Amino acid sequence: MSRSVEVSIVVNGRRTSHSVDPRTLLVHYLRDRERLTGTHVGCDTSNCGACTVMVDGETVKSCTILAVQADGCEVTTVEGLSGPFDGRSAVQEGFRQCHGLQCGYCTPGMLMAATGLIEESGGELSDEEIREGLEGNLCRCTGYEMIVRSVRWAIDNAPS
C-alpha cells in the first residue's frame, strides 16, 4: 500500500497542491488533478511526444516524469501558451497560418516542443534543424511539412 505525497507545482503561473500517489505521472497529474486536458496521453512510453510540456523551461515528455519529481517546479502546458497574436503565441499562430495540424492529436505536444526548440536556439534554426528538433514528436497524419512551415513562420514572425 503506497501512501500519498503532497506535491506543490506552479502550473501555467498558478500554484497547485495536491496529495498524490507517489507513482502518479505528471501527465496524469495535469489531466486528472488540474483538468488540463490539452496535454495528451498518446503512448505512455515516451515514443510519441503528445504529452510534451515544459518543466522549469525545458521540454519534457510528461509521461516520463513523476508528479513528485516536478514538486517545486514551474510547469507550462499548451494551455499556458499566449502571445501577441490575438492571445496566441507565435508558434500557435504559425500552426494556424500554415495549417500545421490535421487531426490535432499531436498538436499540443508539437506546440510545446517547437516552443522549447525556438527558445533553446534563440530562433536561429534551419528547416533541417527544426525537423531534427521535433523528431521525438510523432504526427500520425504525416503533416510534418506543414509543421515545419508553421515553426518557420513562428521564427520569421515572432515579435522582437
Structure description:
It is a single chain. The protein is α+β, with helices and mostly antiparallel strands and 160 residues long. It has two domains: 76 residues, Roll (Ubiquitin-like (UB roll)), CATH 3.10.20.30; 68 residues, Orthogonal Bundle (DNA polymerase, domain 1), CATH 1.10.150. Helix content is 32%, strand content 16%. The protein contains five helices and five strands, in the order ββαβββαααα. Strands 2-1-5-3-4 form a five-stranded mixed β-sheet, with helices on both faces. Strand 1 and strand 2 form a beta hairpin. The radius of gyration is 16 Å and the shape is globular. It starts with a strand and ends with a helix.
CATH architecture label of the largest domain: Roll
What kind of oligomer do you see?
single chain
Number of DSSP-assigned strands: 5
How many helices?
A: 5
Portion in helices: 25-40%
User: What fraction of the residues are assigned to beta strands by DSSP?
Assistant: 15-25%
Global outline: globular
Biggest sheet overview: 5 strands, mixed
Q: What is the CA-CA span between the terminal residues?
A: 53 Å
In CATH, what is the class of the largest domain? Answer: Alpha Beta
Look up the CATH topology of the largest domain: Ubiquitin-like (UB roll)
CATH homologous superfamily of the largest domain - what is it?
Beta-grasp domain
Look at the helices and sheets and give the structural class.
alpha+beta
Throw out a few tags for this protein.
160 residues, alpha+beta, 5 strands
